[in-house]
Design goal:
Elements (H helix, E strand, L loop, with lengths): L2 H18 L9 E7 L5 E7 L2 E7 L11 E4 L1 E6 L1 E2 L2 E2 L9 H12 L3 E9 L3 H14 L12 E4 L23 H10 L4 E6 L6 H11 L2 E4 L6 H10 L3 E2 L17 H6 L4 E5 L7 H11 L4 E4 L11 E4 L5 E4 L4 E4 L4 E5 L3 H12 L3 H6 L3 H7 L15 E7 L2 E9 L2 E5 L6
Parallel strand pairs: 1-4, 5-8, 8-9, 9-10, 10-11, 11-12, 12-13, 13-14
Antiparallel strand pairs: 1-2, 2-3, 4-19, 6-7, 15-16, 16-17, 17-18, 19-20, 20-21
Helix pairs in contact: 3-4, 5-6
The chain binds zinc ion.
Zinc ion (ZN) binds next to loops.
């Protein structure tokens, strides 16, 4: 190629970048173009002071961005850890730097809002980590990416299989006084608790959560139809990672799946990574609950974004991270959370259900935002937070091109953001 041609290409690309892309160095007015995820039509989104100011349909997009979707930033309601950082336990203490590192790495995967998820452990450790998290989540560097926390356990089933990877010695019955201590340490930012409906004291606990405005999820349980219905009557709103946190051998008639699927009041979250559920399970769950009442979650752990290998966790258990991104306990042959980010699950759910980009994205943006009552997240519209993700779909995979949080470009595939 001659030099003139190369120069021309450079200037054209540079012009297109300035005209159609967010400016990486400016937090002021921006116009971002792409295919709107909800109708596949070219759109220009205006941003100012961290908020969306306008959404306008436009003509044809330039060739080099003609296939880039623009969508609300992904919302992940179950993040146990990321990139070597664990919110409950793992190799080393949780630190403010660790929380920032995990957040920055999550941004690279298109997640702009997430709930650090603390799982079953000692009261002292949960108190300590909630205290640390509460002290860091309002740091301006995090751009409001962490509105609150998810406490999964310790009030779950102690029975093997249903308990999953949660350490048995720390599983206990619901204790409202203890929970209030944890929530106080968390700056009253625990917004979801996952519990088992059949354990003693669960219904009273759910009722108190409802009064306090805290979302109750059912998970890691062996509830029968009666206890599940009673829990939903008390206000339980969602089933956590349906189909997981469940023993391998269950009664074909009497098991926790049917009552949770058959009650239209209950939403579900599903781990769409391709390891936690078979395609047939995802299809059935999706057909029953539909795109309005399904949330795609990741259940990612600290092993995400690490190279494959064998690890020993803080409890002394051996874990294996496979090349494909599966985290398992070889000794029990059970999964121990995921190592694949939310975008993987969104793409996989789209692939196995045949749902549209709009439906898949809504299940990871609009639906969780609705559940938690966030009116300014999970949607693209004037006045909403400018949390946006630009992505391509290549061979059934979502390739993140750019992530914008509160109007700031925090990741660009082609540019190193400092
Ligand atoms: Zn779980």
């Amino acid at each position: 190629m001659c030099r003139n041609f190369i120069n021309k290409v450079f200037y054209i690309k540079f012009f297109v970048f300035i005209l159609f892309s967010a400016s990486a160095c400016s937090g002021d007015n921006q116009e971002i173009a792409g295919l709107l995820y909800s109708d596949n039509k070219p759109v220009s989104v205006g941003i100012s002071d961290g908020r969306i100011t306008s959404v306008k349909h436009i003509g044809k997009l330039p060739a080099d961005i003609h296939d880039i979707f623009i969508a609300p930033g992904f919302i992940d309601n179950q993040v146990n850890g990321f990139a070597g950082v664990s919110f409950t336990f793992g190799g080393g203490e949780l630190t403010p730097e660790g929380v920032k590192k995990a957040t920055i790495e999550l941004w690279k995967t298109g997640v702009t809002t997430y709930l650090p998820t603390l799982t079953t452990n000692s009261h002292e450790l949960l108190l300590k980590n909630f205290t640390l998290l509460a002290g860091v989540i309002d740091d301006p560097d995090l751009l409001g990416s962490i509105p609150g926390f998810h406490l999964e356990g310790p009030y779950i089933s102690p029975v093997d299989g249903f308990r999953g990877a949660h350490p048995k010695i720390y599983v206990r019955q619901p204790d409202w006084t203890e929970f209030l201590e944890l929530n106080k340490a968390a700056g009253n930012r625990i917004i979801q608790v996952t519990i088992a409906p059949e354990v003693e004291g669960a219904l009273d606990f759910i009722s108190k959560c409802r009064s306090a405005g805290i979302i109750v999820a059912l998970g890691h349980h062996n509830g029968d139809a009666q206890s599940i219905t009673a829990a939903i009557d008390q206000g339980a709103a969602i089933a956590t990672h349906l189909g997981n946190g469940c023993a391998n051998m269950i009664n074909r008639h009497l098991n926790p799946l049917w009552p949770q699927l058959s009650d239209d009041r209950l939403m579900i979250s599903i781990i769409g990574d391709g390891f936690h559920l078979n395609p047939e399970e995802i299809r059935v769950f999706y057909k029953v609950k539909g795109p309005e009442k399904t949330i795609i979650t990741s259940d990612v752990t600290s092993y995400t974004a690490l190279p494959p290998g064998k690890f020993v966790n803080a409890e002394g258990d051996s874990l294996e991270l496979t090349r494909e991104g599966m985290v398992r306990y070889p000794a029990q042959n059970v999964l121990a959370g995921s190592a694949l980010p939310l975008k993987k699950g969104i793409a996989n759910v789209m692939k196995v259900t045949g749902c549209t980009v709009e439906e898949a994205v809504n299940m990871a943006t609009r639906n969780p935002a609705k559940l938690y009552g966030w009116s300014d997240r999970g949607i693209i519209g004037p006045g909403k937070r400018a949390d946006l993700v630009l992505f391509k779909i290549v061979d059934n995979e979502i390739v993140i091109m750019r992530t914008i949080v509160s109007g700031k470009v925090v990741y660009d595939r082609n540019t190193i953001i400092k």
